[in-house]
Design brief:
This protein has 2 domains: about 200 residues, Rossmann fold (3-Layer(aba) Sandwich), CATH 3.40.50; about 30 residues. About 40% of the residues lie in helices and about 15% in strands. It starts with 7 loop residues before the first strand and ends in a 7-residue tail after the last strand.
C-alpha cells in the first residue's frame, strides 16, 4: 500500500508540467489531491485528467488570492499532510533583453508568491507533515539568459534552508527538488506553439546533458513522492537534484 493513500496533498501550479504529473501520480496512489492554477480555464482542463481531485484558482501574482489560500484550502481540506509548492514561471532572457515587468513577475511568483503560499498552508499541517519546493539547478550552473530566473530560484533554495530550521520545531519537514531541463510546455510557449522549433530547442538542450536527454515530468514526480515519504524522514532543508549530471559534470 502506498504511503500516500488517504493523505491530503496540496499542489500549487498543478495544472501542467511537473505539477500536473505529480498530481496524477499522487492521485493514482490514493491521495486526496487539491491543485491550484492561475486561471479557471487551466484548472478545469487539468481536473478532467485527475480522478477525485479538487481545484482552487490561485494566481501567485495576485496577493489577495495568495493571502486567502489558507482559508480557501481549509474549506476543502481541514488538514494538509503534504504541500508541494511547485508553482513558478520562467522567462529566459540575457541581461540586456530582460525587462522590469518580466523580472518583477518572476520574483513575484517564484519568491514572494512561494513564500506566502507556504505561510498560508502551513497552519493546516500537523506534526509529521512534509513540504516540497520546486527549486532548480539554475543557481548552481552559470547559463546564458538565466541570470534573473536563477536569482529567483536561488532565493527559493535559501528559503528552504531557513524555513527548515523554523518548521522543524513543529516537526514539519521541508526540502526541495532541483530539476535540470524537463520536458514541459514551456519550450513550446517560448516559440509560440511551434512544435518543430520546440523540439529543436529540446534537442539542443539535451546535447548539453551528460545523459544525453532531458527529464520527463513523471520522473520528477517520483522524487517528490520520495521527499514526502518515510524513506526521506531524516532529510531536512536539503535538495534532490534531477538533472542528468548537468550541474556536476
Amino acid at each position: 500500500m502506498s504511503h500516500l493513500k488517504d493523505k491530503n496533498v496540496v499542489i500549487t501550479g498543478g495544472t501542467k508540467g511537473i505539477g500536473l504529473a505529480t498530481a496524477l501520480h499522487f492521485s493514482r496512489a490514493g491521495a486526496n489531491v487539491l491543485i491550484t492554477g492561475s486561471s479557471e480555464a487551466s484548472l478545469q482542463s487539468a481536473l478532467k485528467q485527475l480522478p477525485n481531485a479538487e481545484g482552487l484558482v490561485c494566481d501567485l501574482t495576485d496577493m489577495a488570492q495568495v493571502m486567502s489560500l489558507g482559508n480557501a484550502t481549509q474549506k476543502t481540506m481541514p488538514q494538509v499532510d503534504v504541500l508541494f509548492a511547485n508553482a513558478g514561471i520562467a522567462h529566459f532572457r540575457p541581461l540586456q533583453e530582460m525587462t522590469e515587468a518580466l523580472f518583477d513577475e518572476m520574483m513575484q511568483v517564484n519568491v514572494k508568491g512561494l513564500y506566502f503560499s507556504i505561510q498560508q498552508i502551513e497552519p493546516l499541517m500537523p506534526s509529521g507533515s512534509a513540504i516540497v519546493v520546486t527549486a532548480s539547478i539554475a543557481p548552481r550552473k552559470g547559463q546564458i539568459g538565466l541570470s534573473a530566473y536563477g536569482a529567483s530560484k536561488g532565493a527559493a533554495r535559501a528559503m528552504v534552508r531557513n524555513l527548515a530550521a523554523e518548521l522543524t520545531q513543529k516537526n514539519i519537514r521541508i526540502n526541495c527538488i532541483s530539476p535540470g531541463p524537463v520536458v514541459t510546455d514551456i519550450f513550446s510557449r517560448m516559440v509560440d506553439g511551434d512544435e518543430v522549433e520546440a523540439k529543436k530547442i529540446l534537442d539542443r538542450i539535451a546535447s548539453t546533458v551528460p545523459q544525453g536527454r532531458v527529464a520527463t515530468a513523471d520522473e520528477i514526480a517520483h522524487s517528490v513522492e520520495f521527499l514526502c515519504g518515510p524513506g526521506s524522514e531524516f532529510m531536512l532543508g536539503t535538495e534532490i537534484t534531477m538533472d542528468g549530471g548537468k550541474a556536476e559534470l
